[in-house]
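tl;dr need the bound structure. longer version: we got a ligand (glutamine) that a collaborator sent over and nobodys looked at where it sits. i said id run it. heres the input, straight from their email, havent touched it
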Amino acid sequence: MVKYIFVVGGVMSGVGKGTTVASIAKILQSKGVPVTAVKIDPYLNVDAGTMNPTEHGEVFVTEDGDETDQDIGNYERFLDQNILSTNYMTTGRVYRAVIEKERALGYGGKCVEAVPHIPEEIIRRLNIAARKTKAKVVVVEIGGTVGEYQNLLFIEAGRMLKLKHPSDVVFILVSFLPVPAKIGEMKTKPTQTAAHLLNSAGVQPDFIIGRSNQPIDIPRKRKLATFCGVREEDVISAPDVTNIYEIPLNFERDGLGSKILKKLKIKSQTKDLKSWKRLTTKIKGFKKEVKIAIVGKYFKSGDFTFSDSYISLIEALKHAAWAQNLKPILSWIDSTEFEKSKTKLKELKNYDGILIPGGFGERGVEGKISAVHFARVNKIPYLGICYGMQMAVIEFARNVLKLKGANTKEINPKTPHPVIDLIPEQLRHLAKNHFGGTMRLGAYPCHLKDKSLAQKAYAKFKIKTPIKERHRHRYEFNNKYRIAFEKKGALFSGLSPKGALVEIFELADHPFFLGTQFHPEFKSRPLFPHPIYFSFIKAASKKRIVK
Ligand code: GLN
């Protein structure tokens, strides 16, 4: 029997449930238990591809082309495992499957009901995830917080499983413990209420993980134990950390891994987290900085600035910097600022490298193109990811090839020079309004040109051509312009098999100028930085700030 750990949130969202799940899975993995993690998004959306990144965070693309929640990225990075689409579900996906089964007479004339048919479908999917990954333990993150309507049937699925197999299922409540400044004391009441809400759904938590800005002291652990019906030693502290990769080590200090395994009656081996420990300790000592400007637009949500929309990219930059004993200093620059003031552009001189991430739509595009221009003429290392690569192509077309008004058809369908265009298959999707899950998604092979910047970057990590990288886009470089570009010094160093599609664009007369149509950040891991990010950071670290 596969064992399940259900992780549910209490009090409020955004307290790091995803990294908690990834950390629990990591410590079990370090004890030799075959483990995987599943993310449940309670939204009706069928996938995360149609959700706005400023509302829902990054869309993480799996190797098999699913558009998932950013937490899947955390699982990949912590477990050093490719997580596939079977490990992700949404309410939309579950309901769709049940309705399709009903239409195919799959319920044999029965009345199909929310309970038990929806939880049964959820359990079926969890079993598939376990089977596909050969996991003995599946850590399941139920999105949202207890008390919402949206995740109730997922909690019910866990309750049904626990009723059938009491010693194979564990429930963990991850809850927030505020320390209001005016009161100056950690308050446990919101968490008590969360535990009671979970009780009213028929579930008693086995553990409470308390997220706060400081560790939980003994009196408050006791209080939580008494009022939530959990043993005192099963109330675990999860204080804020400066580096998320420290969380598994913190949990281990509280013996969380062994306590979970004891409840699940699994014998553990004595492996440990040595290399992980070494990395987290090493990071603290880095003094030499590398300053990177990230020029994008998904930073603002009302009055707040947040960077969740680019989480994989941020982590990839960190991994690459750490591997070179550097402290990454990352700055968010809204590209619309460059459209408002040209002097703002000059501030880019203060950075060692400029990066333009993936994106969609018109807002901020001209600002991004100005930033590429600045990086190219001032010889500042430049990395363009997906839209960032397309921006570099447009900039080159306009300023080197002198193609006035060159653009992507995404922005100007009537441009005289569509250097970035749709492929016919995409035209068909768009004509039918088929937007969900129809981009070029997932891993595709790419052949590298010998002795190019890209080929050298991969060769350093002993990765041979063809490489395989993950995509998420509709538009491509327009091949009608290939020869004109090459004549002016552009190098298309990465091409799809048979050379049909341009995957990498680079320039030779520059310290580092490279754009990828794919998203290398999805494959970066804390102990295995991605070659493209590594070589970008290497070039940036050599740059002397221009006066
Ligand atoms: N909007 C562009 C496209 O669809 C780029 C997408 C991206 O950056 N992920 O091709």
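gonna send this back to them w/ a short note. The domain at 286-546 is CATH 3.40.50.880 (Rossmann fold).
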